[in-house]
Amino acid sequence: MDASAVPKEKLLSLYRTMVTNRRFEETLSNLFFQGQIPGFVHVSIGEEAVPAGVCAVLTDKDYITTTHRGHGHVLAKGAQLKPMMAELLGKRTGYCKGKGGSMHIVSYSLGIFGANGIVGGGLPIATGAALASSLRGNDAVAVAFFGDGASNEGTFHESLNLASLWKLPVIYVCQNNGYGEFTATADSTSVKDIAVRAQGYDMPGVIVDGNDVLAVYEAAKTAVERAKRGQGPTLIEAKTYRWEGHVVGEQAFVPDYRPPEEIAAAKQRCPIQLFAKQLADTGFVEPAELERIAGEVERALEEAVAFAQASPFPEVESALEDVFANP
Amino acid sequence: MPEIGFVEAIRQALAEEMERDPTVFIMGEDVKVGAFAATRGLYEKFGAARVRNTPISEAGIAGAGVGAAMAGMRPVVEIEFASFFYCCFDQVCNQAGKLRYMSGGQARMPITFRCVYGAMGSAAAQHSEVVYPQFLSAPGLKIAIPSGAAEMKGLLKAAIRDDDPVLVFEHGRLGFTRGEVPAGDVIMPLGKGAVKRAGNDVTIIAVGAMVPKALAVAEELEKEGIGIAVWDPRTLVPLDEDGMLEVVANTGRVVIADEGHRRGGAAGDLAAIIIDQGFDYLNAPIKRVTALDVPIPFSPPLESYVLPDEEKLKAAVREIMA
After folding, report:
1. In degrees to the nearest 10, what's the CA dihedral of B213, B217, B218, B220?
2. Which residue of A has its CA nearest to B141?
3. B48 touches chain A (CB under 8 A)
4. Which of B163, B161, B158 lies closest to B191 in space, CA to CA?
5. Residue B292: phi, psi to the nearest 5?
6. How far, CA to CA in Å, does B169 sit from each of B112, B135, B275, B313?
7. A141-178, pLDDT tens digit by residue?
8. Cα–Cα dist A140/A172, whole Å
9. Kind of pairing, strands B3-5 and B178-180?
10. Which one of A8, A31, A268, B267 is CB 3.0 to 4.6 Å from B256, fit for a cystine?
11. C-beta of residue B206 within 8 angstroms of C-beta of residue B151
12. What's chain B's Rg over C-alpha atoms?
């Protein structure tokens, strides 16, 4: 897609989202190694174009579900840095009052129905959100982000079948990053392209370069328009690569399972650098603007970390709250 | 008070709630035809959108129910036989039961799951199980177990109106029973048990389909001069602990009757609560009458051998009175 076909504000917003995602997770990794983040942290560095491109066509009224590697999707959907960071540190001021952590960020008001610790767990939930939209007659769409690994789960197949059968306004975005935990996709998945599985459910299966944010944006836009016309779901496979391991700090307990040259080659196609180059080529986005954005992101992140660190832990009694709406 | 069938009670509850609230809808396998007749006629009345006949796809429909509930609907999801819950455990336990908590109270989860449970005569192990103990251990889920038509209607209506996930377990054998059900909008609050019969010697705490059996035993043993109180918890989560302890305090002797397996089951859980909080009321050890710890067998004599029944209940009462 030609960048000059997209409004400048949108282009800059895409860039900001990608830089925010990258710097957020780099900061997170540092904090993890400093022992400040409890639990597991899964980062998606190198995959920033997918959440940015898809969420750029959504509004607060639309829904997303995502995965244990969901920071990028949640941030792209509008989650704020301060409560995000506070949640990751287990603080009271976090999105989930410190009860969810990295793998379970929810913001109801932003239509974020949860990152999810269970592979494939979010697919039927997004399908149900789309069902609600269809029953209520509003034009909200739902997006399920998931990985290549989840495409082997039963919930993937059940969800696609239901959504196609009922022509639900849902978009299944497979962020194929080449690995499910520590196993290469080629060793776990019967097909080379997950998008071909769409054929079995009579819906479009689209492959996009997941490192090209405008390609992702365009595919998502087409899928959303189709969903809003009542023509049903789309499966988008965005091919990208996971620069880091499955979980931050895994070098301490798993041997190298990826060829170093594979990682090096992937880094040659950094989605942020690719996009910066596309923007420079337009002639109407100055490099200084990109630097300004990067600086703003940096300051916002510093503030978010300081806010999270200064925030109190939850009162222990709050562990017993929020189980039921009507106890 | 009109007497209606157990299944008619389900149908009335569903129809009344769907009429009252446009966000209520039904989803499940063969709800159009009504595999157990509970949803029969509703498709014709409310249409395909709100009586949503699904493929055989338990994880998909349970999860779609979760998402629809979060997005403002009140789905009533039918899982047919309770054992089929194993196919969608993740969506029920990890998602429906935990999303509110993990989101710090943001998520709203007004979803009802209905299923037929229990042994109904040589259906063998995969269609005869009592599955609710598995969910007792999963935080965030409410569990209702109607013992008759009145409870069926009142508890189901309460479940549908509740903002939390409620699992309603309907015993297959109760499907053939009838009972007096007040007409109109009768709600039976979740978390409130009922004394079904008064008596001063022994309390039988009976769950679901064990309630009519306990009442029959109580009737019979009264002739021998044993006064039996029968208490129906109606919901295991939330549990009416005060109501249970009150009836136990009055008799000092307790038999717990549940069709679930003994190991890790509801009967053991109720017994532990009584010991924790009402030990001083007890004049004798608590007896549990449950299924034996094997899958429910097919062959009729084997099935009877494994399941709790009136004879086993009577034996337990006599033992505790000795």
Report:
1. 140
2. A324
3. no
4. B158
5. -75, 160
6. 11, 11, 26, 22
7. 999 999 999 999 999 999 999 999 999 999 999 999 99
8. 15
9. antiparallel
10. B267
11. no
12. 19
CB < 8 Å from A in window 109-138 of B: 109
Identify residue B54 by its one-letter amino acid code. T
In whole angstroms, what is the distance from residue B114 CA to residue B110 CA?
13
Per-residue confidence at B35, pLDDT binned at 50, 70, 90?
confident
- Give the span between the Cα atoms of A21 and A239, in whole angstroms: 18
**B171 has catalytic annotation:** no
Q: Best mutation site among A103, A113, A139, A160 for testing chain B: the one with the most B CBs within 10 Å?
A: A113
Q: How far apart are CA A189 and CA B10, in angstroms?
A: 44
The beta-carbon neighbor of A124 closest among B71, B73, B91 is B91
Q: Which residues of B touch A113 (CB under 8 A)?
A: 67, 70-71, 99, 107
Q: Please report, rounded to a whole number, the percentage of residues in chain B having pLDDT higher than 90.
A: 98
Interface TM-score (ipTM) > 0.90: yes
Give per-residue pLDDT as tens, A237-250.
999 999 999 999 99
Asked if A128 lies within 8 A of B72 by C-beta distance, the reply is no
Query: Are A247 and A42 spatial neighbours (Cβ–Cβ below 8 Å)?
Result: yes
Q: What is the DSSP letter of B95?
A: I
d(CA B292, CA B296): 9
- Choose from A112, A133, A326 for mutation: most chain B CBs within 10 A: A326
A21, A51 contact by CB (below 8 A) = yes
CB proximity B104 to A under 8 Å: yes
Q: Are B119 and B307 in contact (CB under 8 A)?
A: yes
Catalytic residue, from B11, B32, B52, B127: name it.
B127
Return the ∠ at Cα A139 (arms to A133 and A143), rounded to 5°. Answer: 70
Residue given tokens 């509930």 in the structure block: B69
Provide, as residue numbers in chain A, all residues whose Cβ is less than 8 Å from the Cβ of B70: 108, 113, 125, 128-129, 132
